[in-house]
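Operator note (shift B, R.M.): manual run for Beta-glucosidase requested after the automated queue skipped it. Running by hand, logging everything below so the morning shift can see what happened. Input copied straight from the record, untouched. If output looks odd, do not overwrite the archive copy; leave it for review.
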Amino acid sequence: MDALPRFPAGFRWGTATASYQIEGAVRADGRGASVWDSFCAEPGRVKNGDTGETACDHYHRWPEDVALMAGLGADAYRFSVAWPRVQPDGRGPANAQGLDFYDRLVDALLDRGIAPYLTLYHWDLPQALEDDGGWTARDTAHRFADYTALVADRLGDRVAAWITLNEPFVHMSEGYSLGTHAPGRMLLLDALPAAHHLLLGHGLAVPVLRERVSGQVMLTNNYSPVWPAADTPADRAAADAFDALQNRLFTDPVLLGRYPDLSAYGVMELPFVQDGDLALISAPLDGLGVNYYSPTRIASPAGAAQHEGPTVLGEVGERIQEAGLPFQDTPIEGYPVTAFGWPVVPDALHELLTGLRAAYGTALPPITITENGCSSHDEPGSPDDDRVTYLDGHLRALHRAITDGVDVRGYFVWSLLDNFEWAEGYSQRFGLVHVDFETQKRTPKASYHWLRAQLEAQHRPDDQ
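Run finished. Output pasted below as returned.
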């Protein structure tokens, strides 16, 4: 396989993780309960009854994991802070032991020349706040701003980039609308207040960060190019309706100061939006995080019956069908698939990035790919060819987008470690490093070694 083309000088190379997926130690040092602790305790919610109670035990093994990042040659690391580790009940003063953990981690990263990219919220809401309504309650947005201040006051002088929210669409849709993720509520379109309050939490956090930190301020969304299943008015309308939720609901308010048209869902007004909210939400950002895994092929509910086979959305798609929403996902054929069943379409990353630039123009801030990767059925010593091919193809598509003028500043592989993959438990392995969850032994995979060689080549002087 040929070496990757040279990326721009200063381009960030990193890996990404999330607190509940790797930390474990859910009862250690004053950490409070999160919605994911509660969700995992409910029978049937997570495959095989798996939980994040131990996960990768990163809370205790973080020095080994930082050494793995350094060995890879990464110069950045995206991680998330567990809100209930900092504020056990989501309110009040900080839990000093929780902040101490992240303080040690940040210092260790900097000692290795690795820039910390910190995500404040990657779905592990304190259960006490969920008991009071969670993100359907406006007060949660204000509690998020308070929590942001606690973390920023402790780490604000050393973190390169601050990401307020991770994939709020997924958290709203699967956690509050369809019930397939924590907190497991099935509110359907009545979950739209949660969408707004997540965005309001972001908007309230931005000025808090501006006052306290020296690093960039960002938001990360997950995006999926939406393809109509057929070139018919009904399927095109269904694709537009899905695009409004997946790609625009959490982007238009941030970049344009307005919500997309939701009339396809019978939503004509948003009574929970108060005066001044959109001005807060649309405050300028230093960057937009983009998570990309695959495109989605969408049909009208009537047209979906013509298509059979596995789909990108899986169980979520089944819930959508049951809910009677105005679209249905359909199979994408003709491409290899990951262990998750997601089609591998590197060119769709180029399509996504150039499409964002076309849609938002000068309102689009510089982009960082904050997640991209694939699950594979691999064990220590296996060839890992699928993951190498996946990363190679997507990085080449990313380079083409940069060549075509899209301002992309970095790329983070999901994930450094095999980890707890939410409702799939430990059945999906995304890591560059294999984790034996019984012994916690870490074993770098072939993709780790491939990427290390690629990064060495990226940093080699042009005349060598």
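Quick read of the result: The longest strand covers residues 216-223. The mean pLDDT is 95.
Leaving this for review. - R.M.
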